[in-house]
Amino acid sequence: MTMPYRPPGDLTAETFENVDITLTEMFVALLRKGQTSIDGRRFVNCRFQGPAVLLSIEGNTFDSVNFGFTDGDIASLILRQGSPTRVVGAIGMRHCVFERCEFFGIGFTGPEEFLQTILDLDPDKAGGAA
Fold this sequence. Notes:
Layout: E1 15-17, E2 20-22, H1 23-31, E3 38-39, E4 42-44, E5 47-58, E6 61-63, E7 65-66, E8 91-94, E9 97-99, E10 102-109, H2 112-119, E11 127-128
Parallel strand pairs: 1-4, 2-5, 3-8, 4-9, 5-8, 5-10, 6-9
Antiparallel strand pairs: 7-11
């Protein structure tokens, strides 16, 4: 987070490139339009900032993504759901594409397969395809 802040224009747009996104601000902007999750968005070279928990619901792709600082413990990025059907307080995402993005101050939850993919990453880099 040493580069200058690059604010996005419209937080409800379909495509974002080379901007910094505070995940909770995007969620609130979409919620005001009646959407309860972030759906069908494409993010290229974006930096996501928390604090937040990203709930990967379905159909998201992550290519060359840095999931965030782990201090050597990749499991610190993961939060497991207590309920199989509902997660209160997490920001749901579906069918979103993340290319060369970075996450800062964001935890991740979702299906076990998704969580295991993150856990299998190199903890020093927390980057790679998921």
